[in-house]
Amino acid sequence: MKGCSKDPTFANGKNLVTYAVDLMGPNKSPEEYQSGPRILGTLISCFEQRKPAKFNGQRMLIRHLIGSSSSSHILQKLLQMLDSRSRPYDRMARECAATIVAFVADDIHLEQFPEELLCLSSLIETFEDWYVRDWYQQGRNESSDSGIDNPDLRENYVTLLSHGMLIFHKLASNGNNCRVISKTQGLLSKIMAPVTGDLLHRTDHPTWIKIVKLSLILMVRLVAAPGETGAKVREEISTDKETMGSMERILSCDKCKECDGLHIPVMEIFTQIYMDSKNIERNFIKMLVRIFTGDNEDSSSRKMAGEALAKLSLHSECSAGIILKAEDDVVDHLSKILIDLQLQNKAYIIGAAEILENLCSQYTTDDECLNELKIAMTAAIPKALGEIYYFCGLVGDETHTRTQPQLSDQGRLSDTDIENQRGHQQDNHQGNITSSSDPQNNEQGEDKNKNEEFQATSFSLCVTVCDKLISADTDLAYHFYANVPANGVSSFPRKLKDMVEKMSNPRPACLRMLKLTSMMVISMMKHKCSYPKQDLESLMESLSTASKDMFLLDGCMIFANGEDGAMRRKPLRRSLVSLVEEAQELVDKYEPHEIDVLASSTPVSGNTN
Fold this sequence. Notes:
By secondary structure, this protein is mainly α. Helices cover about 65% and strands about 0% of the residues.
């Protein structure tokens, strides 16, 4: 460490990083080589604990010096140091090497280090195996400790095990690494062992909660891996009764519910598994519905349950039917969430819209469930359109003074559900929503993105309902357009035109809204309703202009591998130009019907009975 006294720039850490890496270079003695990981591991631990921006330069330097292809020999040696059978053995050096490998694991490709994978997997071993090697290599006598009851030994073991799980979790962000992991004999079983062995319920929760959670979040990445890799992992987990049983116990255990976020990765794993299966566990679906519609559940649980239900409802008609029949009035509860803008977390509204849209598109069996879905959606969608108008700045606050929505005695949304529900939000009528409770608007950008997602998801539901349900039912069309906000059906094309002109910026969120508007026009042409032809033509002029402005962005978006990567809803793969062309052809052929369905009437009750 003489360099520290000779060169003051060691204080900023950069020269200390290069000094430590140099000690791991060729022609260094074993003592010197082990000093390098100790210094670098200690630096990384300091950087990760403090995380100020001033250390970004040092972090980048470490990644470059260790993770680059030109430094593969250094990384190879670090991986070899992880082997519990390595000589000379130094416990601290091994921990420091694990810290370094975990830091650069995102950049590691396991195919380049086939022999070192065994060294890496040795971090995930039983306490007995680790203890025997450590006892022998440290030269302890039998009376010097008491095995796993020794807190220092247990802490050292858990630290190395945590590093191992974390390293594999980062490695699993790469699809090729997932393939290597799944094909390595015995490795997947090691990764699942804390869950399979039901550690939480065989011992005490505090001791093993961290390890079990790391195991679960690593399993999440592996079950979600693309192609055959993910399918193989999902099959192996689903056929392992011990693992499935342990995860079910985690979901039902009160102590596990108190552990921060432990049940969330379990829900994700079950969701991925059941998306492969024709026999979805009904109790799991019921649990998700109960969590998502429950006001007393924590926000992370509700959000995850909503995402899981959206994925499963899109999966098949069978899963959509199970959701519809999970409990009484499930559609009404989802509809209540959809129009409840006093909810602080718009993720709930987005989740409800996604679930309802998938139910409408997937469930086609002509039974009571479908009839209830039609009735609920016919009542809720005009109200959702009113919210979209508001957030686009097309109507003012005077028409949106709302109260908390209530269910009627029959479980239906009552007529006054949406009359007083605005809360404390303000619209600047330029597409930006601000909150009066946050005068500094510190989260304005995040709020704007969430509001845009809310608008697009709600409007997508409106389009699907109009296309799948209302277009096929004259009575529903009659009642739906009787309740369209802002002067009813006669103003609908004009409101859509105003919305198009609000979405003129070439951004993905605006592009999606324009595509949905074009799809709404196509659906409108199927209805036996009367629209002023000049309004339709004016709307199409705006859409045509917008499609030209969005032409470049629309072309670039084809490279996005499904714009809804989470697959909670069907992606809009068609180009805006093709949608506008189809809509234009239908509008050109359109002739207003002789009977105008309540074109100029005032909104009436949503009760179709």
